[in-house]
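Risk mitigation, structural track. In case the binding assays with zinc ion fail to produce interpretable data, a predicted complex structure has been prepared as a fallback.
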Amino acid sequence: MAHPPTDDLLQSRPEGLYCAAGDFYIDPWKPVQRALVTHAHSDHAKPGHRHYLAQSDTSALMRERLGLDPKALESVAYGEKRRIGSVTVSFHPAGHIPGSAQILVEHKGDRWVFSGDYKTEADGFCAPFEALPCRVFITESTFGLPIYRWPDAGGVFTGMLDWWAENRRRGRCSVLVGYALGKAQRLLHGIHTACGGAFPGPVFAHGAVLRMNTVLRDLGHPVPETAPVGTAAKGRKAAAEKAAFRQALVLAAPSVSGNPAGEAWLRRFEPYSLAFASGWMGIRGPRRRRAADRGFVLSDHADWDGLNAAVRATGAERVLATHGYAEAYSRWWREQGLEAGVLETAFVGERGEIGEGEPERESGSASEAEDAESPAS
Ligand SMILES: [Zn+2]
Ligand SMILES: [Zn+2]
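Fallback model:
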């Protein structure tokens, strides 16, 4: 990969997206002196940097997930401006998961925005996406093809409630899979809202999900209470637990599917119905879809219309696409008369995101390490 010198305010380097005027990187994938981080998903927030700057929820999540030294972490609120070198930076809601931010970099009247991961639809759970006027917009393009159009989320949550009701009637457990940071809590919140604030049965969660529930609840996000999946293997307690599972909804992390350790974990819920919630559920193909009894189309990324609306709302004259269908998506904007291209990055989607950034290419088995790094290739 060649890296010709350019005057661009933000440019791709082997370590990550670099700003020479401020001497910092955004979401770098190799260790650097100063990293600005858009959100706490594992392909954007890496350990090993000397100094981190992030929105305060993202800082708290990184402390929990990466075990960072608090002294290495500097937090800002949404909209707060910071001067670094000769640029001014600020973090603005991206609507992807709690704490997720777009980063605005201003330099001598020029404005660049790096979107990070985003969705434009307000979900009532995390701070909604904010369109930022800029000259250059670096947009993610995870779902940057016209085949990706999300159904109304309210209807999806009602569908989940119906599926759970049907399973209760049949006396089988409802196991719903979504990645542990962001998706699982949005599912809980959405289902809780759809059923009027009182779950119709017991709700349990996988350990990786529980951990993120607690952190997000402590940060003030509306995450409904869930019970841990018990460890009772024998006796009356186990029998009672087994009976409860037949009426229960279990929020599971993607690591429970497609590997022996995960299958062993799932066995305790038998009989069960397994469902996945992901943008990839909207199309045929992804491997995990075949393992599922049900697929719910629910993504924390913008769909085709959302991406296009976001790009238009910035008024940008130049668009750089990254993450996903970057080539096809930038070609589309060139055809619309904008200056557009691909920005090389190493973002692949949250590990175990059910391919939310990585169709058909799930990285090995992820038995427990929800937050382990994804191989970037
Ligand atoms: Zn993400
Ligand atoms: Zn990502």
